[in-house]
Amino acid sequence: MARCDEGYLCDVCGEDVGAMTDSAMYLRYVTGGLDPEVLHTYPERHLRCEPELAQYIVHEKFKPVACEGPFDKRALDAEYVAQREGLMTRGWLRLRELAGGELPLRDYPLPEVAEAMRSRYGDG
User: Fold this and answer.
1) In which domain of life is the source organism classified (predicted)?
2) For a FRET experiment, which of 23, 88, 104, 123 has its CA 20 to 30 Å from that of 61?
């Protein structure tokens, strides 16, 4: 079956990543961590299957995720952690805004990420 027929399967647990709000790939894209040129080839994962990313989402509607080991935010610089929490939480909220909408993919990123992409790739 083609990838589009299967949906997007998590490369960690193998289950379907059914919602954009559960997608580590789309969170990386909207926050500028994933270049749009490689979006179609990037492996998909549930946010919870990528704790080193999900741990930075801090919102009452998102159950906290712990990340054990060297990437645990509790062992990192507090200023860096605060910046990452702000960005990833805003990115996750953006995914919630986008869910079920009709915007083109190029309009998904956060405003500052979209501006950087326009500067890099042009308006087209």
Assistant:
1) Bacteria
2) 104
Query: Taking the mean position of all CA atoms in its chain, how far away is CA 67?
Result: 16
The answer to whether the CB of 53 falls within 8 A of the CB of 66 is no
d(CA 44, CA 15): 10
SS3 of residue 62 by DSSP: strand
Helices and strands (H and E) in the chain: how many: 5, 0
Q: Minimal CA–CA distance to 65: which of 96, 43, 88, 34? A: 88
* pTM for this entry: 0.88
CA distance 96 to 21: 6
